[in-house]
Amino acid sequence: MIDLADKRILVTGGTSSIGRATSSALADAGARVLTCGRHQSSLDDAIAAASGDVNGGTADPAQREGVDRLFAAVDDTLGGIDMLVSCAALGADPIDEMDDADWRYVFDTNLAAYLACAKRAIARMEANGGGHLLFIGSISPEIEAVGESVYAATKAGVQAFAETLR
């Protein structure tokens, strides 16, 4: 078990579900947490519900500008990063029911954002002697549920990225 006291941790997608619970649990364990969400009201609710040191800002990690804003906040608010927890994700309809822009946005959120954030985190972690990357995946690629092809493809990509990066 890693001692999380004063660890600087970025949690993407920290305004709902797994990301929100993770941000709160990490802060409860003594970590300094920075999280993000696309909507200010959800972000405010998540920060207010946390009992420890959780800060945040609106950013969309699916967009280059969002990643820029997020890691500027990592530098300014946390003074570096010891751990990245990538949680940001969107569900998806069946591919034949989605516009191209919509399934591409799911792909960018659920997979490309993980790569972009990992690249930024790794550069900072290497400069500071190391760190940890945690990518939240899903069992959906193994379940192979009808209509889940877009979501399952992105989560299979997360798994392949994590395993080969390691």
Question: How would you portray this structure in words?
Answer:
The chain is of the alpha/beta class and 166 residues long. It has a single domain (8-165), classed as NAD(P)-binding Rossmann-like Domain (Rossmann fold, 3-Layer(aba) Sandwich). It is built from 6 helices and 5 strands, in the order E-H-E-H-E-H-E-H-E-H-H. The protein has a 5-stranded parallel beta sheet, with helices on both faces. The chain is globular, with a radius of gyration of 16 Å. The two termini are 19 Å apart.
Short structural summary:
The chain is α/β, with parallel strands linked by helices and 166 residues long. Helices cover 52% and strands 14% of the residues.
Architecture blueprint of SSEs:
Elements: E1 8-12, H1 17-28, E2 32-37, H2 40-49, E3 54-58, H3 64-78, E4 83-86, H4 100-127, E5 132-135, H5 140-143, H6 149-165
Parallel strand pairs: 1-2, 1-4, 2-3, 4-5
Helix pairs in contact: 4-6
Features:
five-stranded parallel β-sheet; about 170 residues; alpha/beta; 6 helices; 5 strands; Rossmann fold
Pattern of helices and strands: EHEHEHEHEHH
CATH topology: Rossmann fold
Low-confidence stretches: none
Radius of gyration: 16 Å
Which CATH-level-2 architecture?
3-Layer(aba) Sandwich
Count of DSSP H/I helices: 6
Give the total of beta strands: 5
Q: What percent of the residues sit in helical stretches (DSSP H or I)?
A: 40-55%
Strand content: 5-15%
Overall morphology: globular
Structural class: alpha/beta
Largest β sheet strand count, sense and barrel closure: 5 strands, parallel
Q: Which oligomeric form is depicted? A: single chain
Mean pLDDT: 95
The level 1 CATH classification is Alpha Beta
